[in-house]
Amino acid sequence: MAELTKYDLLINDLSSLESQASILISKFKDTFARNIELENFLAETKRENMLLLQEITKLENEIQKKKENGDADLFNSLTLKERDNLKVRLQNLISKIDYHLSS
Asked: What is the pLDDT along the chain (103 residues), one digit of tens a residue?
C-alpha cells in the first residue's frame, strides 16, 4: 500500500511538472510573438524616421537656397495657404514624434 502512495505522489509530481512546462512553453510562444511584433514596429519606425530626416534635410536645403537667393524672410513670404499647409505638416510631424516618444 505504501508503494502505491509513492507511485501516486510521483505521478502527481510529474503531472505538476508537465503543466508547469506547458505554461512556460505557452509564455515563451507569446513572448516570442510579441518580440517579433516589436521588431517589426522598430523597423517601421526606423524607416519612418529616415523618411522624416530626409524631409527635414530637403526642407533645410530649400531654406538655404531661399536665403542664398535673397529671400531672407522666408516665412513672411509664404501665402496664407502655404502657411496653413506648413502648420498642418508641422502638427503632423509633432504628433508622430510625440507618439513615438510615448511608446
From this structure: 567 788 889 999 999 999 999 999 999 999 999 999 999 999 999 999 999 999 999 988 888 887 777 655 656 667 788 888 888 988 888 888 888 877 7
| CA distances to 12, 26, 28, 71 from 19, in Å | 11, 11, 14, 73
C-alpha grid cell for residue 69? 537667393
Q: How far, in Å, are 18, 39, 97, 100 from residue 103 at the CA level?
A: 37, 14, 10, 5
Measured from the Cβ of residue 4, the count of other Cβ atoms closer than 10 Å reads 8
Give CA angle at 14 (12, 15), nearest 5°: 65
Is 96 within 8 Å of 45 (Cβ atoms)? Answer: no
Cβ atoms of 67 and 74 within 8 Å: the answer is yes
pTM for this prediction:
0.52
